[in-house]
Specification:
- The protein is mainly alpha-helical and about 325 residues long.
- It has 13 helices and two strands.
- It has a single domain, classed as Orthogonal Bundle (ABC transporter involved in vitamin B12 uptake, BtuC).
- Strand 1 and strand 2 form a beta hairpin.
- Helix 1 (about 5-35) crosses helix 12 and helix 3 (about 75-90) runs antiparallel to helix 4.
């Protein structure tokens, strides 16, 4: 093989390694638009964006956690606790703005607790957040007695059902969270530290950076954003459901890994996570439009996660051989 062919092969491989996720999104858009005339209706496009908003909000926090080499399986349960807690506070007479502040502080503290267990007790992130996921789901049911919470004031509903021009408010909230997240990761020293912890934790520690502090920060942000997503969900469905956020961690992790964030930490861009989130939204919406059964959808989503992680591992192995 001559040098020109090698360069061409390398360029094509590098292009798909960096932008393959965009190609996948375009392919899915083309596929579902050909299978359903309703797919590109403006109402359906806005519905896709509205549906992915919650996953998108949580994905920003999950991205930071994965970049450090950790994982947070508790985000769905934190979301559920936030939903029912906000509803119960408003039902007891607390103003909705104060209720939001209280719940966001509480969910940030739950994220901080994850960091504490990981840092101080040295419990692996997978086990820590799995235990928190199970416990907090139980808390959500205990707080409500297992029944949805209704009857609170409707002032909060704009956050979930409102529009600014034609754009749903949840989509605007997601966009703001992504913008702030990108600025934090790419323009601040703490963003560099997060990548450093995931890339080489020991080297980062020897550089004088507090690895524990970085982990406290990322798990706290993850808890904060899961709480925010729970509040937006409450405003959208107008009820506090104890099962709210159930299995959201699956869609969130899949979206983040699809977006090119390495499951081993240290690699990935939040900008591409947006594409991963959109892929999951388009995939789910498209399958519904063409009447794919729920169980089949679960199989496809699970295979999507396996494919994303498998591709990540393959690229890591390839890079290791090139070094």
């Amino acid at each position: 093989m001559d040098e020109k062919s090698q360069v061409k092969k390398y360029s094509i491989g590098r292009f798909f390694a960096e932008f393959g996720i965009v190609v996948v999104l375009i392919a899915l858009l083309a596929l579902f638009s050909s299978l359903s005339d309703k797919f590109f209706d403006i109402d359906n496009i806005l519905n896709i964006l509205r549906q992915v908003a919650l996953v998108g909000i949580i994905s920003v926090g999950m991205t930071m956690v994965l970049l450090t080499g950790g994982i947070d399986l508790s985000v769905g349960s934190i979301m559920g606790v936030a939903t029912v807690s906000t509803a119960l506070l408003m039902l007891s007479g607390v103003h909705f703005m104060l209720a939001i502040v209280i719940v966001l502080i509480a969910t940030t503290a739950l994220g901080l607790l994850n960091g504490l267990l990981i840092n101080r007790l040295h419990i692996p992130p997978l086990i820590t957040t799995l235990g928190m996921m199970t416990s907090l789901r139980g808390v959500a049911y205990l707080l409500t007695g297992g029944v949805p919470v209704f009857g609170f004031p409707g002032d909060i509903l704009f956050l979930g059902k409102g529009h600014i021009w034609v754009i749903p408010v949840p989509v605007i909230v997601m966009a703001i969270v992504f913008i702030l997240g990108i600025i934090f990761l790419e323009k601040t020293r703490y963003g560099c530290y997060i990548y450093g912890v995931g890339g080489n934790e020991e080297a980062t520690r020897l550089s004088g950076i507090s690895v524990q502090k970085i982990k406290y920060i990322v798990y706290s942000i993850s808890g904060l954003l899961a709480g925010l997503a729970g509040i937006v969900l409450l405003a959208r469905v107008n009820s506090g459901q104890p099962k709210a956020g159930n299995a959201y961690e699956m869609d969130v992790i899949t979206s983040v890994v699809l977006g090119g964030v390495s499951i081993s930490g240290g690699e990935g861009k939040l900008g591409f996570v947006i594409v991963g989130v959109l892929i999951m939204g388009v995939l789910t919406n498209g399958m519904i439009l063409i009447n794919v059964q729920d169980y089949t959808q679960q199989v496809i989503k699970g295979l999507t996660l396996l494919a994303a992680v498998g591709f990540d591992r393959m690229m890591q192995t390839r890079r290791a051989k090139q070094v």
